[in-house]
Amino acid sequence: MFSRITGTGSYLPKKVLTNQDLERMVETSHDWIFSRTGISQRHIAADDESTSDLALHASRRAIEAAGIDPQQIDLIIVGTTTPDQVFPSTACLLQNKLGIRSGGPAFDIQAVCSGFVYALSTADQFIRSGQSKCALIVGAETMSRIVDWTDRNTCVLFGDGAGAVILQASETEGIISTHLHADGAYKDLLSVDGGGCGVKREGDPRVIMDGSGVFKFAVGVLDSIVEETLSANNMQKSDIDWLVPHQANIRIIQATAKKLGLPMERVVLTVERHGNTSAASIPLALDTAVREGKIKPGETLLMEGVGGGFTWGSALVRW
Ligand code: UT7
């Protein structure tokens, strides 16, 4: 038994924040942001819009694309680092908003920017083992709620959004393999100073990052995960038709494409318009490429991402 992606959907909040808008908020420039990251704009959730709302819109579109009845969904996994509440999980809130009463499990996965790959891998295991037939997997984030809008080192990088896929049991191969890793020794390179139930502290939780440390770590582990994914499947670089990477920084993406020997035309790029939407970025990029008609049946896609923790992972997918 295999699992296959049978529908994709995504959603971006209406409000757009451009680099020019940011020039009026912090000491920065469009040229600095664009040349260092490839980002021109990002979307920002409205005050009354939560992560589960973004997830709901993206999920409805994925359900429609797959042509399924929502009641068929027997597993919901949401990758998010910006849940609506400590509990219930965003997945349970989403299940309720979708009116799904199948009783199937629903839970969140917290792996920051690797959240979607972690969620896809977990759902794939559920389907391969026969525990689930039809899963809804979402990456959804309101990063704007944990960004320090006075810190130019971080506030220019992130955006809000959601992407979703329907993953169904299939006799033909879809998800070929997934590879997940973590190393908590790097916890201080990228973190949020609070927001959980740790020791008491003052003030709102905010993203803290050692940008160049993250950059070096990301390029290194993505390099090795490309090798690991290809060798696990006895594949060559030339077998990859599309790279669907986590969209954090165009320079990190270019380094992975170079490693694969892939021309940039074969890399799905949304970082310029979406910024870094953490767990939402891969399914947002995937849905964008699918709706543009770029990805054809039978093609092989490599998804990869790295995020705070550190966590990193890849998924090799036959379309
Ligand atoms: O999903 C994972 C999430 N995080 C990432 O992917 C981040 C990975 N890292 C990066 O993308 C890059 O390291 C950054 C884009 C964050 C920074 O690029 P960089 O080429 O590594 O620049 P830098 O950190 O070496 O900073 C260079 C200078 C510094 O000034 P000084 O100390 O050299 O005078 C910064 O203060 O740029 C300054 N700077 C800015 N200047 C204008 C930092 N942020 C800004 C800004 N506008 N927004």
Query: What is the number of helices?
Result: 10
Strand residues, percent: 25-35%
State the major sheet: 5 strands, mixed
Q: Looking across the biggest beta sheet, what order are the strands in? A: 1-7-6-4-5
The overall pLDDT average reads 97
If classified by CATH, what would the architecture of the largest domain be? 3-Layer(aba) Sandwich
Order of helix and strand elements from N to C terminus: EEHHEHEHEHEHEEEEHEHHHEE
CATH superfamily of the largest domain: Thiolase/Chalcone synthase
- Associated small molecules: oxa(dethia)-CoA
> How many structural domains can be distinguished in the coordinates?
2
End-to-end gap: 16 Å
Class computed from helices, strands and strand pairing: alpha/beta
Description:
The strands form four sheets. A five-stranded mixed β-sheet has the order 1-7-6-4-5, with helices on both faces. A four-stranded mixed β-sheet has the order 8-13-12-11, with helices on both faces. Strands 2-3 form a two-stranded antiparallel sheet. It is globular and about 55 Å long. The protein has helices spanning 19-23, 30-37, 51-66, 90-97, 115-128, 152-155, 211-232, 250-260, 271-274, 281-291; strands spanning 2-11, 15-18, 41-44, 75-79, 106-109, 134-142, 160-170, 175-182, 190-192, 207-209, 242-245, 300-307, 311-318. 32% of the residues lie in helices and 25% in strands. The chain contains ten helices and 13 strands. It has two domains: 2-171, 3-Layer(aba) Sandwich (Peroxisomal Thiolase, Chain A, domain 1), CATH 3.40.47; 176-318, Peroxisomal Thiolase, Chain A, domain 1 (3-Layer(aba) Sandwich), CATH 3.40.47.10. It is of the alpha/beta class and 319 residues long. The mean pLDDT is 97. Strand 4, helix 4 (90-97) and strand 5 (106-109) form a beta-alpha-beta unit. Bound molecules: oxa(dethia)-CoA (UT7). Oxa(dethia)-CoA (UT7) is lined by residues 28, 32-33, 36-37, 113, 152-153, 156, 190, 209, 211-212, 214-215, 218, 248-249, 276, 307.
